[in-house]
């Protein structure tokens, strides 16, 4: 699946959320605009449930929070660059400054895993991550990740 089909420019932001809880709330608020039938609280609870199984902080300042939701018919990506890195209980114990959140319909498990794998691979590219960290606007961030 092409990344630009699940990540829209309005779901890409530079922010200073301050904590893991606040960034998950920010992701939920952004997603709730895209999924009007869901509340940001429902989305937050889905993300939090996944985090309770183990942190989605994959190391090197990157996290890929994700959740499965009923009552949605299409996946949604959200990209956030934190102006100030936040503690995220990452596997390498380092703070996180780049997050790619993925929300998918509950019945699309295989597609979910393939998209997560693809994003993890992209964020494993040191050159891409360096450019993302240097970006100064949401549009630049979006263009870098979708190219």
UniProtKB/TrEMBL annotation:
GO biological processes = phosphoenolpyruvate-dependent sugar phosphotransferase system
List residues of the PTS EIIA type-2 domain. 1-147
One annotated GO molecular function is:
protein kinase activator activity
- Give the keywords, sorted: Transferase
**Entry-linked CDD domains:** PTS_IIA_fru
Q: Which Pfam families match?
A: PTS_EIIA_2
E.C. numbers? 2.7.1.69
Instruction: Kindly report, in one word, the top-level EC class recorded for this enzyme.
Output: transferase
Q: Which PANTHER family match?
A: NITROGEN REGULATORY PROTEIN (PTHR47738:SF1), PTS SYSTEM FRUCTOSE-LIKE EIIA COMPONENT-RELATED (PTHR47738)
What is this protein identified as?
Nitrogen reguratory IIA protein
Lineage at the top is: Bacteria, Pseudomonadati, Pseudomonadota, Gammaproteobacteria, Alteromonadales
């Amino acid at each position: 699946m092409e990344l630009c089909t699940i990540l829209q420019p309005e779901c890409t932001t530079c922010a200073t959320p301050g904590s893991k809880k606040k960034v998950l709330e920010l992701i939920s608020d952004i997603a709730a605009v895209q999924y009007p039938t869901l509340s940001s609280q429902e989305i937050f609870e889905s993300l939090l449930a996944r985090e309770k199984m183990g942190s989605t902080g994959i190391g090197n300042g990157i996290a890929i929070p994700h959740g499965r939701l009923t009552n949605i018919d299409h996946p949604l990506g959200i990209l956030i660059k934190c102006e100030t890195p936040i503690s995220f209980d990452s596997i390498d114990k380092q703070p996180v400054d780049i997050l790619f959140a993925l929300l998918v319909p509950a019945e699309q498990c295989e597609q979910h895993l393939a998209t997560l794998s693809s994003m993890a691979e992209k964020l494993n590219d040191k050159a891409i991550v360096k450019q993302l960290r240097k970006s100064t606007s949401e549009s630049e961030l979006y263009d870098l990740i979708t190219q």
